[in-house]
Amino acid sequence: MFARLTDATIYQFEQESSQSDDELSTFAEGVSEPVEEPQPRLELEQALEPEQALEPELALEPEPPLKKPRFKEMPSREHIDMLAQARVEETTKQQTDWGVRLFRGWLTENQYSDKFEELESSILNERLCFFYPSLQTKKGTDYSKSALVGIRAAISRHLTSPPYNRNVNLMKDNAFMTSNHVITGMIKTLKRAGKDVTVHKKPVAEGDIQRLYSSGVFNTDSPATLQNKVFWDLMLNFGRRGQEGLNSLTKSSFGKFKDDRDHTYYKMTYNEANKTHHGVDSHENRQEVRMYEKSGDENCPVASF
CA 289, CA 64: separation in Å to the nearest integer? Predict the structure, then answer.
């Protein structure tokens, strides 16, 4: 009935209390094949098939460090436009906004669309031919030559700046020749009429300078008044434009030197940006301005610095 006894069967027979040794012997005699000896229990890895055996845990190798990028992250379009706008000074931006507002106001007043940025050059030139002669100040007087030239340049800068970035030049392109003839004629008319008079700021009178020193605002015995004097000396000796750019100066902006006559002086150690140049090219500003010492003078600028 059974081909062989299994380990499980033998184990069961050994545990059955109702079976005697005689019964077990009788049962064994009826088996045609000899009973196999029970095999020892195999360990888990031996019992499994070779492909199922557990492989030893491999040590994880550390990932190689990420290579540091050679360049910065790709800038956004907004950042690129911001950099392009940074090429002009803040005062120039204000001048540009003023000229554009004048042109938009004229277009609106004459029932044109004030969106002139996408106009064809021929149409824009025609608009400018009528715009320039219509200009006048709020008091009803004619603009000066510098104001007229500044308004034209402001509109041109606006067109070539982001987001428009047009490849046009209102001053040089042939497409705007007729409008340039108009503005040139206006300037010559101003000269013939004696109206093109440039008004310069009056220099500070010598008497006023003496009053400043006698008032104590330039005293060197306190940090606040000493700073007043040093900034005054910088503006006076280096010809700086009022207080423009003073907040960007540092101690390293100046260098102390001696000339061939052993006189001590200070000079600026970098190419300062001005209204037409931006200190990028060393050839932009070849003039070297010096602030010399005044030996025996209690108001010596070098000593104060």
Answer: 56
Best CA proximity match to 183, nearest among 144, 221, 148, 230: 148
Q: Who's near 229: CB < 8 A, 6+ residues apart?
A: 218, 219, 220, 299, 304
Residue 112 CB coordination number (10 Å): 16
Dist. CA 165–CA 167, nearest whole Å = 7
Q: Work out the average pLDDT over 174-187.
A: 96
66: Cα separation from own chain's centroid: 27
Residues 6+ apart with CB under 8 A from 275: 89, 91, 92, 241
CB 305 within 8 A of CB 266: yes
Q: What is the DSSP letter of 50?
A: G
Of the two residues 194 and 64, the one the predictor is more confident about is 194
Cα dihedral sign, 169-173-175-176:
positive
